[in-house]
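Chapter summary example.
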Amino acid sequence: MNTVIFILAAYLIGSVSFAVLTSKMFGLPDPRTFGSKNPGATNVLRTGKKLAAAVTLLGDGAKGWLAVFLALRLAPTYGLDETAVAASAIAVFLGHAYPVFFGFHGGKGVATVLGILLALNPWLGLAALATWLLATYMFRISSLSALIAAAFTPFYGWLWLKSGVLVAAVAALSLLLMWRHKSNIQNLLSGKEHAIGKTQPGDAPPQ
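The structure predicted for these 207 residues follows.
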């Protein structure tokens, strides 16, 4: 029963969409209505409001970190092991991807996964972040950078996590992240995915 409570709490934390809330706070259009229609920092950035995008990025990362941090600290108190932590990590991601508060239309989860990884092990999170930054510098395509980082992250988890259950959770998160990018993968294969900073018709938010 306690594990179910942990999962539910993590899912609800993940369901807070910082892209939508931040856009409202800054008087911006709903990010689900323009560009990629993805409620995430990259789409918020298409409005030209860098501060709003930064707040979205930090908020989405923080909720992933918070859910796992609380699970790590509280699980032993309730007689739970790493399984509850792993379940909480996946639940907060699913909350972000399919938020109950926003019609189950959520983001792709890159920042949230980074927050999860930082909570599990700072070196794990930093390694994933460094991979994303390097790929971004090389290719200038946000989705491709996320996919490359996701591909390497299970290996980083194997290096820095002592629990096989947590390594499995990290691998599952990487696969889920790739699944959430399936439309981007199709665009990459067809040459339609555009670089950071370059806009296409329909990317601009409604005025």
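To summarize the output: The chain has a mean pLDDT of 95.
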